TrEMBL record:
It comes from the Bacteria. Residues 1-22 are annotated as: Disordered. This is Uncharacterized protein.
């Protein structure tokens, strides 16, 4: 995922790094989103606020780890 973003920027534009984020809520399947630029402390998605945790998932290959966000309590 991240390799594709970095290898295929729009013509004439320099793309910032991209990071994967998994939005995890209990036993529900995670929602994975891609964030360009710096990794934020919170994300707004689907009417909810999601907060960064210290958890990560292995992205495999040479990509950065996938950050885990959980709903704000």
């Amino acid at each position: 995922m991240s390799a594709f973003v970095r290898d295929n920027p729009p013509a004439g534009a320099e793309e910032p790094d991209a990071f994967g984020i998994d939005l995890v809520d209990g036993d529900e399947p995670a929602v994975r989103i891609l964030v360009r630029g710096e990794l934020p402390a919170t994300v707004e998605h689907d009417g909810r606020t999601w907060v960064a945790t210290d958890e990560t998932h292995d992205a495999g290959d040479d990509g950065p780890p996938i950050a885990v966000f959980r709903p704000r309590a």
